[in-house]
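Sample A.
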Amino acid sequence: MQSHTNEMKEIVISTDKESEKVRHEKVVIMSRWKTSINKVSRKDEMLLRLREALKLLRLESKGVKAILGGVGSEIEEAKVVSKHKKFIGNLRHQSICVDSGTTQTTLGIMQ
């Protein structure tokens, strides 16, 4: 009977040791799992911030393109106005000289 009791004690001790190993492994696995979840959460947050930044950059880019487009059209308008002013200026500076019955156009300053 004593031998059965000793065997039972050994089995209980062995089982308790195994249970403790399993509990320790469970703690380690849970800790790693929580760490992984935290890392994934941080990566998701960083990805969200990156997407928001890209969205803002796209909007800024569109704004810059619109400004540049506006400036480009203003430059074109200014070129047209400049050409017209030169043409009108040339007309103002033209003088018509009548010499021996013929009309002659010369560019010069009228006074």
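Sample B, a different protein:
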Amino acid sequence: MIHFKSKKFFYDKEMLGSKPNTVRTLDESDSRFDELINMIQTRKFGKIRIHLNTDFEGTWFERDITDVSYWDELFIISWDGNCVQDGLKAGDVNHKEEVS
């Protein structure tokens, strides 16, 4: 599973499925990007956990990754916008659990 943070404006759209992707700028010092490169090469995708705001505790949601694309130093990580996991329903923006 790969973890990223998202600002509230994007988080709600991502969680509810109207924006079923996140775009990240390549950071060669961050091992998460090695994992994304591996997903592109093998076409084997895992899960993504998107955390609200600046920490990796508290509010988050999780989805199965359906595609990872790379373009001009950007990674585009996509998931099924209709997929609901962890008991989330449309409008449930307060899902909270500890990161294990």
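Observation for Sample B: The helical segments are 8-16, 31-42.
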